[in-house]
Design a protein that fits this description.
single chain, alpha+beta, 2,3-Dihydroxybiphenyl 1,2-Dioxygenase, domain 1, 2 domains, three-stranded antiparallel beta sheet
Length: about 130
């Protein structure tokens, strides 16, 4: 029997500020961010609010074996905006990536920014910890 999934294509993080998110990920070595093609190219839509859909901003980068996407919703009634409003602006609880143990996403110039949790050698939980 063929498994239903053979790989994860992408992970999309919904963020309140896409430029700040890109800066964070570039600091830890995840770069090459590109603008997603214009959403206006999608003409056959089944979305709750077309204007809110068109107001989404996406960036993506292709990491080895996985595409990472960032999405910043506009003020409209998109599911992405509702998710951010419901979670208080937190895009996710945590993402664990294998990485060099010496990598830190913390900006050393910002003492208010928390350290990131090291769960075991080579793996970090990336993102703000409450």
């Amino acid at each position: 029997m063929t498994p239903p999934l053979d790989a994860v294509h992408h992970v999309c993080l919904v963020v309140p500020d896409i430029d700040a998110a890109v800066t964070f990920y570039e600091r830890i070595g995840i770069d090459g961010w590109q603008d997603f093609p214009p959403l206006s190219a999608f003409t056959d839509l089944d979305v709750p609010d077309r204007d809110a859909f068109l107001d989404l901003t996406y960036k993506y980068t292709d990491a080895p074996g996985l595409q990472l996407q960032l999405c910043e919703p506009g003020p409209g009634g998109s599911p992405q905006r509702q998710f951010l409003d419901r979670t208080g602006g937190a895009p996710i609880d945590r993402v664990h990536l294998s990485a060099d143990p010496g990598i830190s996403g913390r900006d050393p110039r910002d003492p208010a920014e928390p350290e990131h949790l090291t769960t075991r050698p080579g793996v970090r939980a990336l993102g703000r910890l409450a």
